[in-house]
Write a structure and sequence with these properties.
The complex is a heterodimer.
Chain A (H helix, E strand, L loop, with lengths): L15 H8 L5 H4 L3 E5 L3 H13 L2 E5 L17 E2 L11 H11 L6 H21 L24 E2 L5 H18 L3 E4 L2 E9 L2 E9 L5 E5 L2 E4 L20 H8 L4 E2 L4 E7 L22 E5 L17 E2 L1 H5 L9 H13 L11 E4 L1 H27 L8 E10 L2 E2 L12 E3 L17 H21 L13 H20 L5 H16 L5 H21 L11 H25 L23 H4 L1 E6 L8 E6 L14
Parallel strand pairs in A: 1-2, 1-9, 2-5, 9-17
Antiparallel strand pairs in A: 3-4, 6-7, 7-8, 10-16, 10-18, 11-15, 12-13, 12-14, 14-15, 18-19
Helix pairs in contact in A: 3-6, 3-11, 4-5, 5-11, 13-14, 13-15, 14-15
Chain B lengths: L9 E9 L8 E10 L5 H14 L22 E2 L2 E2 L21 E5 L8 E3 L2 E2 L2 H10 L19 H11 L6 H5 L6 H12 L8 H14 L10 H5 L7 H19 L12
Parallel strand pairs in B: 1-5
Antiparallel strand pairs in B: 1-2, 3-4, 3-5, 6-7
Classes of the chains: A alpha+beta, B alpha+beta.
Chain lengths: 640, 270
């Protein structure tokens, strides 16, 4: 059984991080260059970690599967990044950001981690502005803000509808600077296919070069995974097609615990599915809910009418009706389920009936078409490209889609997993968002972890490792891991079955969306746990991966990722089945109040479930880390 | 349901560049893509064709893609001679089959440029862009050293203009569209973005010199003011930034001639 010591420092909430920084061990400057740290992934968390660690003097190797670090999917985040700057003088504070995030997460995150996140949020904005991130500004030249869901203050910083892009390009420029200066060794087209554990510590990785197929072994004193989330288990999601869980899943199989895998976020405002050929779903930023009003027809028979022909009195602005104080800006999980309820009642719009309207006509009256264009122009353009409809002329049609995973590898307060020397940052870990993430908080967490947490905490671990003690990459553990990776590729190529990899991914996505999506039941999850092992067997017996292992082979890359998704999907269902409550993004139909809100069970489930791999074909072990709320009272979330 | 699923399906012939490796000979091969929903994206159409090829025991067409929403810059493709296809201000992944007609022959090639060597089929290596960035595409700001963000007001017009340039997605369409395979629009976008901001002034001279020198070393051509780059740019970045780059380069060169220490480009990030 894994030991899950959260290592939360003692003392008052607001002093914990400051105190911890003065208590943890340091590595002396001359010794830093003797340590090598591997960073896998170069999104917000990975790029910021790699450049910061390099600037401190550590030798850093960074591996990305993309052709350039600038491609990571952080780039697609649209709306913004939260920070407790209180520039609007509207009563914001570190405590309020902390409290909103804890509450938004439905009381399933660690208090200490979240408070630290809120504290360093202000440094992130300073850091990004210093790097030249062109945030939106007011005419006076100061930074502008907007509002996001789950908050009653304006604390979101943004760069048009491309905030993630600008923040990532900022972090990428920092990474580029350190690569150019010879401080970081960058490996592109390099996919991590295994973690190497020596003497119980993470000491290296196995990498496949996606162009040549060459398998290489790399040893290090510590390994940092910043490889993002696993929402592509659902096949259709707002993730990039390449986003995958392979790095964290292979680490799980080497002993790292996977925490709360069932916590997935379904984003309320995405463009609805249009056909079975579809490869991805596109998000319409939550920032649109600042000025757009969400509604569905009151009468079923109106659902196929042109929206303009539905009288004002026949429209149900259901978020404003059910949640008058937060209205259209209630949190994502709440808004998604409300939209689903409207569609379940038969009031969904569009041909499939799976859609509601997001209407800007009031905003256009108030701000003029140009005013709306200035704020959201690029989002309206995206909508037009995909649907061939103008949201200036008629309301957008939106429906919830998989967008983010709050679960991930278990980490302690230092962001170290239960495998010593393995650190996990950003969406790949589980620690800060509880059971639901608030908008504009993912960018905040990625950069907090990379710029302001890992630079301190990695030193605490390395100070306990003798300089120069990292194992040779020729050792038995490295060879065994590299051999198993090659054997897996060979198995995929040798199967020579009938079905392309995409067939299995689609099938998996449907099982997961039907049974482990927006609403879950015991029966549904149990049936998924029957179907998934069968799917895994079908995959092993009938997958068709053409080509060879020693060249660019996108089918082979995808085969490995989908094989991992199938296994991870099973763990998600198992986690969802054993969590007999509803909280945040995890909604079990059996556990709800009469008005359809989540019914938590703090007594039985006020904890983190951290799953431990027990070997292929064996049921994983469910470890528990109790969540001790010392400063905030766990209460029923109320956005009414 | 988008627009209308009642829209009639179309069938097209794809004439695709196939090349199994950088040293192999390449050639066009025809594939038919039948009964396509016009609301399908161009890349989704390629997914379908690839699954059919796989089923027939042929190797699927390698093409680069990732976010499929026009922001990561991974997708490329020259479609009917146009980088990123027929639409203006969009990337290949945002191109939909409704842009084509039933019976069309669609020619699909990789982005061609000496500085973008071909890897396989439609996939090229754009590492040269990263090298240019590593030479100077940054403002040095170590984590932990930043001053208070609102301590330095930036006029809204400058911030907006910087953002216009900063939107570059690093896809390389500007290079593929240019008869000289010049990377001037790419370089000018970064030099313009950082040079417009007060934070970017300290390194302004060394940045422009280092980035332009690296651009030349990587084998990109020069600009002859045809502006095909801006026309192909999925973010419609204006060629005005090229004029700005030329001014910056000239003044930095003059200053460095008189005060070389101010514009040293040594050590990339030094």
């Amino acid at each position: 059984m894994a030991t899950l010591d959260s290592k939360i420092p003692s003392g008052p909430l607001a002093d914990k991080w400051r105190k911890h920084k003065t208590d943890i061990k340091l590595v002396n400057p001359a010794n830093k260059r003797k340590y090598e740290v591997i960073v896998v992934g170069a999104g917000l968390a990975g790029s910021s970690a790699a450049s910061s660690l390099a600037d401190m003097g550590y030798k850093v190797k960074c591996f990305v599967f993309h052709d350039s670090p600038r491609r990571a999917h952080s780039i697609a985040a649209q709306g913004g990044i939260n920070a407790a700057k209180n520039y609007q003088n509207d009563g914001d504070s570190v405590y309020r950001l902390f409290y909103d995030t804890i509450k938004g997460g439905d009381y399933r995150a660690r208090e200490a981690n979240v408070h630290r996140l809120a504290e360093v949020s202000v440094n992130i904005i300073d850091q990004c502005v210093a790097q030249g991130v062109p945030f939106a500004r007011e005419y006076g030249g100061l930074l502008a803000n907007r509002s996001f869901g789950g908050a009653q203050v304006s604390r979101t910083f943004y760069a048009r509808g491309q905030t993630g892009q600008q923040l990532l390009l900022g972090a990428y420029s920092a990474l580029s600077r350190t690569v150019g200066a010879g401080l970081v060794e960058l490996h592109t087209h390099s996919e991590m296919l295994d973690l190497v554990v020596v003497g119980g510590h993470a000491k290296g990785v196995i990498i496949r070069n996606l162009i040549t197929g060459e398998i290489t072994r790399h040893s290090a004193d510590a390994v940092v995974l910043a490889t993002g989330g696993y929402g592509n288990v659902f096949n259709l999601s707002t993730y990039a097609r390449g986003s995958n869980a392979t790095a964290i899943w292979r680490a799980y199989k080497r002993g790292a615990c996977m925490a709360n895998p069932c916590y997935t976020q379904i984003h309320p405002t995405c463009i609805p599915v249009s056909g079975d050929y579809q490869s991805k779903l596109t998000l319409m930023s939550e920032s649109l809910r600042n000025d757009g009003r969400i509604w569905a027809p009151k009468k079923k028979e109106d659902r196929l009418k042109a929206p303009a022909d539905i009288a004002e009195a026949d429209r149900d602005y259901f978020l404003e009706r059910i949640y008058p104080s937060f209205g259209n800006l209630c949190p994502r999980d709440v808004a998604s389920r409300a939209a689903k309820r409207m569609c379940d009642e038969g009031r969904g719009v569009g041909e499939t009936g799976l859609g509601v309207y997001l209407d800007f006509s009031d905003a256009i009256k108030r701000l003029g078409e140009n005013g709306v264009r200035e704020r959201y122009g690029n989002l309206f353009d995206i909508y037009h490209e995909i649907t061939n409809e103008s949201a200036y002329k008629q309301p957008m049609r939106i429906y919830p889609a998989v967008h983010y995973t709050m679960g991930g590898l278990w980490v302690d307060y230092n962001l170290m997993s239960n495998v010593p020397g393995l650190f996990v940052l950003g969406e790949a870990n589980f620690s800060d968002h509880g059971a639901n993430r608030l908008g504009a908080s993912a960018l905040m967490q990625g950069l907090a972890d990379g710029y302001f947490v890992i630079p301190y905490t990695v030193g605490d671990y390395l100070a306990g490792q003798k300089p120069g003690s990292r194992p040779s990459a020729d050792g038995a553990e490295f060879k065994a891991a590299a051999d198993s990776v090659s054997a897996m590729s060979k198995r995929f190529l040798d199967t020579k079955g009938k079905q392309p990899v995409s067939y299995f991914h689609k099938k998996l996505g449907k099982i997961m969306w039907d049974h482990c999506g927006m609403a879950r039941t015991k029966e549904g999850l149990e049936s998924a746990l029957q179907k998934l092992p069968a799917l895994r067997e079908e995959f092993n017996a009938t997958v068709n991966v053409p080509g060879s292992a020693n060249t660019l082979n996108q089918s082979l890359e995808q085969a490995g990722r989908v094989a991992d998704f199938i296994e991870l999907g099973e763990l998600m269902c198992r986690d969802a089945l054993t969590r007999e409550e509803s909280c945040g993004g995890h909604f079990r139909e059996e556990y709800q109040y009469a008005d359809g809100e989540c019914k938590r069970d703090d007594e039985k489930f006020g904890h983190v479930a951290a799953w431990e791999f027990q070997g292929a074909g064996k049921t994983p072990l469910r470890n528990v880390e109790a969540l001790n709320y010392e400063f905030v009272k766990m209460s029923v979330r109320n956005y009414k | 349901m988008v627009a209308a699923s009642s829209t009639k399906s179309i069938s097209v012939t794809l004439r695709v560049w196939r090349q199994s490796g950088p040293k192999e000979l390449g050639q066009f091969k025809d594939y038919s893509a039948k009964d396509l929903n016009p609301n399908m994206s161009f890349l989704e159409m390629l997914d379908v064709v690839n699954d059919e090829l796989t089923a027939r025991g042929e190797e699927p067409i390698a093409f680069a893609h990732d976010c499929r929403e026009g922001i990561c810059g991974t997708c490329s493709l020259t479609i009917n001679g146009k980088p990123h296809g027929p639409g203006k201000g969009i990337a290949t992944c945002q191109t939909y089959m409704r842009s084509f007609h039933d019976g069309d022959i669609i020619v699909v090639e990789p982005f061609r440029a000496a500085a973008f060597p071909l890897i396989k089929d439609l996939v090229v290596d754009r590492t040269s862009f990263d090298k240019i960035m590593q030479a100077g595409g940054f403002i040095t700001a170590r984590a932990g050293s930043a001053p208070e963000a609102n301590g330095l007001p930036v006029p809204k017009g400058d911030a907006d203009r910087a953002m216009d340039a900063a939107q570059c997605i690093g896809c390389g369409a500007c290079v593929a569209a240019c008869k000289n395979a010049s990377a001037m629009l790419f370089v000018s976008a970064k030099v313009g973005h950082l040079g417009l901001l007060p934070q970017g002034q300290a390194e302004r001279d060394r940045r422009v010199l280092a980035m332009v020198n690296t651009m030349d070393e990587e084998g990109f051509g020069n600009c002859t003011n045809q502006y095909e780059c801006s026309a192909a740019c999925p973010k419609t970045i204006s060629h005005d930034f090229i004029a700005r780059l030329n001014r910056d380069y000239l003044s930095a060169s003059l200053r460095s001639a008189f005060r070389p220490e101010a514009a040293s480009t040594g050590g990339g990030g030094a």
